[in-house]
């Protein structure tokens, strides 16, 4: 337990608002430029599928980095790792802005993934300060605040890109990054206890997590359920522009649908997780997400599809993610509490790495002339896999009790 938070005093635990800002940076980096993707493809004179890689490679790099972030934070502490990652992110954002061609842009986009430290370690900080059930509730509130970002970022990005060009969205990322670095420097006190183990010994503790069926179950639940959203990230820009004929600004407004659902789901988690329990919250979330997507498929097959149905189903996916992810994250961090940072990094790597693959698959499925159906079917498959994963966790817990 760290000292009680005192705002802008780095000798105490961070204020909740600082954790929300940290958690928000990854969401902002993933979402704010999406409406500008077609414009960016034109600027760099490259096919859309190449420009869409800026989503997939960011997610892949983000996931890969999380394998290393956790052990480094358990070794050196949360504060220095977070501040270093955010500083690298700011430099990489400038690189994206001044990239002379798409290859250089994509290289700096990979480096931008250093912002992963903010998401991974904000979760570890919450777990440092709370019991598992309390952590699920607090994570719900942190992610609820964070979920405002994907709710408004695409809309802001769409307006900025139409008014000032795609570069305006990356200037917004740079300014936001500098502000968050300053606040984090002033407010983030160390909540972890740096390990006496060497860095190699920290990485050697991965098998302790990887041999735990419950850790795998919680990770896969989070990865598959959030996978539906990553499929959306990979396919929605194409569906919006090519299938529904939407402008960047209109697309930005409609992408608020999953964020509204995510906000609601996290609010319910924050209010009820400590009372209802992690596993019940996860089951509720996976069911809501799966049923929402299946309803959209049924309506589309009945000839009632369209942008309102496609984006409307994402509201249910957002609610499902909001109910599932905080509790599943708390679960994976609580299987081995002394490895909370490592567990957060490894679990996040699986979630984001899987998301990168699903995002790329969605992009590959959407060839010229495609409809929204491939995206919906892929989302339904991932939601169903998330439900099966938590059922396996319950089975394992029943075996341990028996």
Give me the secondary-structure topology.
Elements: H1 16-31, H2 37-43, H3 48-51, H4 53-76, H5 78-97, H6 102-112, H7 116-129, H8 132-146, H9 148-164, H10 167-187, H11 199-204, H12 206-210, H13 213-243, H14 248-254, H15 256-276, H16 278-301, H17 307-334, H18 340-365, H19 373-401
Structure described in brief:
By secondary structure, the chain is mainly α.
Going by CATH, the architecture would be Up-down Bundle
SSE order, one letter for each helix or strand: HHHHHHHHHHHHHHHHHHH
**What's the β-strand tally?**
0
The average pLDDT score comes to 81
Shape label: globular
How many domains? The number is 1
Count of separate DSSP helical elements: 19
The gyration radius over C-alpha positions equals 20 Å
Percent helix among the residues? over 70%
The CATH superfamily turns out to be MFS general substrate transporter like domains
Structural class: mainly alpha
The third-level CATH topology is Growth Hormone, Chain: A
Low-pLDDT sequence parts: none
- Major beta-sheet overview: none
In CATH, what is the class?
Answer: Mainly Alpha
Report the span from N to C terminus. 33 Å
Report the β-strand fraction as a percent range.
Answer: under 5%
């Amino acid at each position: 337990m760290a000292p009680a938070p005192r705002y802008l005093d780095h000798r105490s635990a961070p204020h909740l608002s600082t954790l929300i800002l940290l958690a928000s940076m990854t969401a902002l980096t993933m979402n704010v430029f999406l409406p500008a993707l077609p414009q960016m493809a034109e600027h760099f004179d490259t096919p859309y599928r190449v420009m869409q890689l800026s989503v997939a490679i960011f997610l892949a790099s983000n996931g890969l980095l999380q394998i290393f972030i956790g052990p480094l934070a358990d070794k050196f502490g949360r504060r220095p790792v977070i501040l270093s990652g955010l500083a690298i992110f700011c430099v990489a954002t400038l690189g994206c802005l001044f990239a002379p061609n798409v290859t250089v842009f994509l290289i700096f986009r990979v480096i931008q993934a250093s912002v992963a430290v903010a998401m991974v370690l904000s979760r570890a900080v919450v777990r440092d300060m709370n019991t598992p059930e309390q952590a699920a509730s607090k994570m719900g509130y942190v992610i609820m605040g964070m979920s405002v970002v994907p709710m408004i970022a695409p809309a802001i990005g769409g307006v900025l890109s139409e008014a000032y060009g795609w570069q305006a969205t990356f200037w917004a990322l740079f300014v936001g990054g500098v502000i968050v670095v300053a606040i984090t420097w002033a407010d983030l006190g160390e909540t972890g206890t740096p390990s006496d183990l060497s860095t190699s010994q920290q990485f050697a503790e991965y098998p302790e997590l990887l041999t735990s069926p419950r850790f795998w179950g919680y990770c896969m639940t989070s990865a598959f359920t959030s996978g539906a959203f990553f499929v959306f990230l990979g396919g929605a820009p194409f569906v919006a522009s090519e299938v529904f004929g939407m402008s960047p600004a209109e697309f930005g407004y409609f992408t608020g649908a999953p964020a509204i659902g995510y906000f609601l789901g996290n609010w319910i988690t924050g209010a009820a997780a400590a009372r209802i329990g992690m596993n019940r919250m996860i089951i509720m979330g996976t069911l809501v997400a799966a049923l929402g997507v299946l309803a959209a498929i049924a309506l589309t097959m009945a000839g009632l599809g369209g942008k309102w149905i496609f984006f409307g189903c994402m509201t249910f996916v957002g609610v499902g993610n909001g109910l599932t992810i905080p509790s599943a994250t708390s679960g994976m961090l609580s299987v081995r509490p002394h490895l909370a940072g490592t567990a957060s990094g490894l679990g996040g790597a699986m979630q984001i790495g899987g998301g990168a693959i699903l995002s790329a698959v969605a992009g590959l499925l959407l060839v010229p002339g495609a409809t929204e159906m491939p995206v919906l079917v892929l989302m339904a498959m991932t939601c169903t896999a998330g439900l099966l994963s938590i059922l396996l966790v319950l089975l394992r817990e029943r075996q341990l009790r028996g």
